[in-house]
Design a protein that fits this description.
The structure is a single chain. By secondary structure, the protein is of the alpha/beta class. The chain has two domains: 8-78, Arc Repressor Mutant, subunit A (Orthogonal Bundle); 85-194, NAD(P)-binding Rossmann-like Domain (Rossmann fold, 3-Layer(aba) Sandwich), CATH 3.40.50. It is 42% helix and 19% strand. It contains seven helices and ten strands. It has helices at 8-27, 35-42, 46-53, 68-78, 94-106, 153-165, 192-205, and strands at residues 32-33, 60-61, 65-67, 85-90, 110-117, 126-127, 130-134, 146-149, 170-173, 186-189. The strands form two sheets. It has a seven-stranded mixed sheet with strand order 6-7-5-4-8-9-10, sandwiched between helices. A three-stranded antiparallel sheet has the order 1-3-2.
């Protein structure tokens, strides 16, 4: 396993590049793009873009820029989008349902193979052709690689502990609480209210 010298922001930007490049390939009849155009589209410094893209290989051509097809393929490999990841959603309330349906509609390489809850009224119900299982039955044999937590804040740490114990590689937390996660587990925190706080604060501060 590699050490972790790269900032999470690098992976965020490279994911943005993938979305941008894939959209251009899908909607425009062209072969190349350069860092200046990516800079204009994404509002990022072109030197930063070139530095990021150097991480995925020597793929630029002087005077032409980057082959869109090669760039997309290389980013797919860098982000491991060229393989299927097994995902579990823990917490099948409204948010869990919404995330499941979004992922199905998006047709990504992330396969939601397990749904979990601890509410007896939800356990055994069928959601999008998947049975909701009792989270107490979560086991390493389920081959879950990534876990999405959509439970109340009061139980989120316990859920994370179970995922960690059973060797998941990454956790995405939607519960409005900061979790204690070991450094060898890859962790993303998505707090909608906090993001709205940031937006409202920026809107107010910069309007003064």
């Amino acid at each position: 396993m590699k050490e972790r010298p790269l900032s999470d922001l690098v992976f965020e930007r490279i994911s943005l590049y993938y979305r941008c490049v894939d959209s251009i390939i899908q909607n425009e009849n062209r072969e190349y793009i350069d860092s200046k155009e990516l800079s204009r589209i994404l509002k990022l410094d072109s030197s930063l873009i070139r530095r990021d893209l150097s991480l995925i290989g020597k793929i630029g051509k002087r005077g032409l820029g980057y082959s869109l097809g090669i760039l997309r393929d290389n980013i797919r490999e860098f982000l491991a989008k060229n393989r299927t990841w097994n995902v579990a959603i823990i917490g099948m309330g409204n948010l869990g349902h919404a995330i499941l349906r979004y992922m199905i509609q998006s047709k990504t390489n992330y396969r939601v193979s397990r749904l979990y809850d601890n509410d007896p009224a939800k356990i055994g119900t069928i959601v999008e052709n998947r049975a909701v299982e009792n989270f107490s039955s979560f086991d390493v044999s389920n081959n879950i690689e990534l876990g999405i937590i959509t439970v109340p804040a009061s139980v989120a740490q316990n859920v994370a502990g179970t995922l960690i114990e059973h060797k998941v590689k990454g956790i995405m937390n939607f519960a409005p609480v900061r979790l204690n996660i070991p450094t060898d587990i890859y962790y993303r925190e998505i707090d909608v209210i906090r993001e709205l706080d940031i937006l409202s604060g920026m809107s107010t501060y910069y309007s003064l």
